[in-house]
Amino acid sequence: MKLGSYTSSIAAATTTCLSVPLKNLHSFSSLSFLNWNKRKVGGDMSPFSIRSASLSASTAENSSATATTSSTLSVKKPWLIVGLGNPGKKYQSTRHNVGFEMVDAVADSEGIPLSSVSFKALLGKGYIGNVPVMLAKPQTFMNASGESVGAIVSYYKIPLKQVLLIYDDLDLPFAKLRLLPKGGHGGHNGMRSVIDHFKGSRDFPRLRIGIGRPPGKMDSANFVLRPFSRQEHEELDFTFQQGLEAIRILLLEGFNKSATFVNSAKSMEQYS
């Protein structure tokens, strides 16, 4: 798996996304999460098959022998998995965009195309195991990421405990992962923006990807916009594989098991 293979030109999508009023953006119906996965149902290929619904009915008869039936739908909310980064070719494969790269890796591995432009983001929807997910790459530029993430969460009423933010971290060694259930922004402007748009709430999980500290006296702002070397790409490919497994465990088995996996994971050097 090559880092560069996950990234494609998104300038046109970005222009479209940022120029369309929010009320005119592509939206799903109120039953969108019932129609989440492409499957064949009843011989017809519907856009998304019913996956997470349960029906209950009760019948009562009156003196005139009429009957009524009521049904109640219980819909499972999706997870929202967001990678933070900057849009455009200029920022591809830079340290500040590892969040984008991780989401691209998830999309590629799970067969979830990032083909929709909504809420100032590239979006994809599908399943990881039996869990419905939305993948998002905000196109607002890093410092305004919350504008996109906040709008998605608000529209779909996704619980914050089911919003996973993925982003770069200067304070972690290069290619090191850390999964946390909540926390502050740590000086990361993208996370600062997201927390602001969550009305100050910090109670959502985050997967941090270490990019290391800048060498010598290099300014941090310049360092995060530097591209990766070929060797660093190879290490990141390995890290993305670990990140994929951590995300699968998180969604299917819970936070504690995923955090244990992340904290006990070996580096590529330890396997060699």
Summarize the structure.
The chain has 272 residues and is α/β, with parallel strands linked by helices. It is built from eight helices and eleven strands. It has a domain at 79-266: Rossmann fold (3-Layer(aba) Sandwich).
Keywords, separated by commas or semicolons:
single chain, 272 residues, alpha/beta, Rossmann fold, 7-stranded mixed β-sheet, two-stranded antiparallel sheet, 31% helix, 22% strand, tRNA-binding, EC 3.1.1.29
Describe the model.
With 272 residues, this protein is α/β, with parallel strands linked by helices. It has a domain at 79-266: Rossmann fold, CATH 3.40.50.1470. It has helices at 11-19, 98-110, 145-156, 189-197, 220-223, 230-253, 255-264, 268-271; strands at residues 37-41, 44-49, 57-61, 67-71, 79-83, 116-118, 121-128, 131-138, 163-169, 177-180, 206-210. The strands form three sheets. Strands 6-7-8-5-9-11-10 form a seven-stranded mixed β-sheet, sandwiched between helices. The chain has a two-stranded antiparallel sheet with strand order 1-2. Strands 3-4 form a two-stranded antiparallel sheet. Helix 2 packs across helix 6, helix 3 runs parallel beside helix 4 and helix 6 (230-253) packs antiparallel against helix 7. The radius of gyration is 21 Å and the shape is globular. 35% of the residues are buried. Keywords: Hydrolase, RNA-binding, tRNA-binding. One of its GO terms (molecular function) is peptidyl-tRNA hydrolase activity. Its EC number is 3.1.1.29. InterPro entries: Pept_tRNA_hydro, Pept_tRNA_hydro_CS, Pept_tRNA_hydro_sf.
